[in-house]
Amino acid sequence: MRLFHEGSGASITGTGGKRGKTLPGAVYERSRFESIARCLGTVPVASAAVGAVAGFPAGRLVASHYTVMTRTTSQILTGGPALVERALGVKLTKEELGGAQIHEKSGLVDDVVEDEDAAFESIKRFLSYMPQNVWELAPRAATDDPANREAPELAHIIPANRKRIYNMRQVVEAIVDRGSFFEIGKKYGPGQITGFARLSGCVVGIFASDPKHNAGSLTAAGVQKLRKFVDLCQTFHQPIVTFVDEPGFMIGPDADCDATIRHGASALISVALSTIPWAAVLVRKSMGLANYAHMPSGCHVLAWPSAESGALPVEGGVALAFRHEIAAAADPAAKRLELEDQFAALQSPFGKAEAFSVHDLIHPRETRSRLCDWIELVRPGLMHQLGPPQFSFRP
Predict the structure, then answer these.
(1) Count of CB atoms situated within 10 Å of the CB of 159
(2) Residue 37's Cα: distance from chain center in Å?
(3) pLDDT digits (tens, 9 = 90+) for 333-343
């Protein structure tokens, strides 16, 4: 379903005033949002804001699986400028209230595009990864990208210095079918990368940590983005591949004010209850409670030699557990580094492999072939999951 929106919402003149009295709906009438909710659990819904959208049309717009807005011609508002000024005494333009510069980062829309033509193209591409409905699988596309293609560029992409960052999108694009990665919501919850791609022509959801933003930690925005994405993949039976470099949930006063751990628990429950196949590639960090955002029961887990895991990142764990010993040392900085190196060695993936905590320890360059083997293995089982999901999509 494709919807293009421009509308101002309700008017007081529609319930009386100059047009005369209009009777309200009967108590036995169905909620207008019930049909919308049922659509979200049945067919793909994509919407675009191409002008000013407020009130009910705005609610209808965002009740979609994929939402875009045009950069210069659209605004999305709960209430327009006149209503805001009268109710709150704040005078703002439509652009200041709900322009693209606001919603590109608010999470209200998945993407901001330049114009209506670009909106059509974005929706067309999104729908290319979707089935017609929940009783079908997404179509498999032809590809000339060999399943056994190696990615030698991945051999050295993870810096030896654990504190240095790298380009996670380059990791993803080196592994999936060439040109198939379609990212969604890039500027909202930027520490988490979500989108769709293909492996051997089969659609998969992509979830990855971006170490360039808060080291990839899960913020309140990031976990809400994740929860929505898992719901979407669950609804349309899309397997998920996650590339893990997870230091944990974001900490600090801002994170606590944002109720990060409550939103995080909601996302963890969505992940835990999902029935779609998951594959996790442990690229680097896999720490603490947030680790469960990447690996539900039955997850197929592959680890790179650069992977490390534990209850806490080494730096924070050492500072917490050995603060007195570090303070008492003749050279506190040297003592801290010594302890960090000591415990970093204990977080290597080799111990996890020996304990059967991963399915295999692999060279990064063979990741594509291993994931292509996995998708061939799990795809037939998706036929048994067709139909409405256990829990439906929630915008």
Answers:
(1) 13
(2) 21
(3) 887 777 777 76
Amino acid residing at 274: S
Torsion sign (Cα): 196, 54, 117, 1: positive
> Minimal CA–CA distance to 190: which of 161, 224, 146?
224
User: Residue 368 half-sphere exposure, CB side, CA atoms within 13 Å?
Assistant: 25
- CA-CA distance, 50 to 18, in Å (whole number)? 30
Name the residue with tokens 């670009």: 118
DSSP code for 329: S
Does residue 228 contact residue 392 with C-beta atoms inside 8 Å? no
DSSP string, 56-114: HHHHHHHSSSEEEEETTT-EEESS-HHHHHHHH-----HHHHH-HHHHHHHSSSSEEES
Strands 300-303 and 278-287, by their bridges, are parallel
Q: How far is CA 321 from CA 252, 288, 324, 327, in A?
A: 19, 16, 8, 12
Could you give the CA distance from residue 33 to residue 14 in angstroms, rounded to a whole number?
19
Sign of the CA dihedral with 56 first, then 57, 63, and 68 last: negative
pTM of the shown model: 0.88
What is the per-residue pLDDT across 269-296, written as a single tens digit (0 to 9) for each? 999 999 999 999 999 998 889 999 999 9
CB 289 within 8 A of CB 249: yes
Show Cβ contacts of residue 318 under 8 Å, excluding neighbours closer than 6 positions: 326, 336, 339, 340, 343
